[in-house]
Design a protein that fits this description.
The chain is mostly helical. It is built from eight helices and four strands, in the order H-E-E-H-H-H-E-H-H-H-H-E. Keywords: Membrane, Transmembrane, Transmembrane helix.
Length: 267
Amino acid sequence: MSTVEAPTKARAQIKERTLRRDNWRIYPITTLVIFTAWVAYATVRAFWGAAFWVPEYHYLTPFYSPCLNEICGDAALFGTFLPAETRGWIPFAALSLPFLLLFRLTCYYYRKAYYRSYWASPPACAVAEPHKKYTGERRFPLIGQNLHRYFWWAAVVISLINTWDAILAYHGDGGGVGVGLGSLILTANVILLWGYTLSCHSCRHIVGGRLKNFSKHPLRYRFWGLVSKLNERHGQYALITLGSLVVADAYVALVASGTISDLRIIN
């Protein structure tokens, strides 16, 4: 009488770290370099405390919006509560920057990016990681990733403020309506920021989640379909907006410091 062996529960033993043949190291290494360079630039600019505002054309860099320091002058659209003595150790946009940082840190795309590039957890799909155990996002501090949906609401408010800054940037020298290269750069940056914010997974859930029947909610279903299409490119928006923020900030800094003159199109 033949016997049937019980299936074993042991995992397949593979000596190789991975069987992948492609150059999977490119993504984590490139991400590490880009993120590190961006964080270094953003940190320096956030604490710089100068070259952030062009009063002639109402150009305000997004790294300083809303501007809350006494030094902000006309750039302080929502008042000031930070004394001038805090310059250099408290960002002028002290209310918005922490929420924006937390929004990006808890973003699903950024989690994948910095988990792979900084922690090698794992460094790539189908590649063994150096960590002996995995606890997921159930313990401090990673349990805080679950707050992403709330940081999204803060990001929406800040995007509205950035939109208003872009509208004010269509200001002519001496009054009236004017258009300059800075106006177009700030507008393009805001459009890209809205693309990143609205393509968020949390936005997709807020718009169309928790519905049992889409046919009874045609308007929400239409918005859900639109957000779903944006969501397909969420990772691209996440990376592109890093570049657009640097371009917008650098251009305003160059004009504000007098290094270059704004290219005026109208007035």
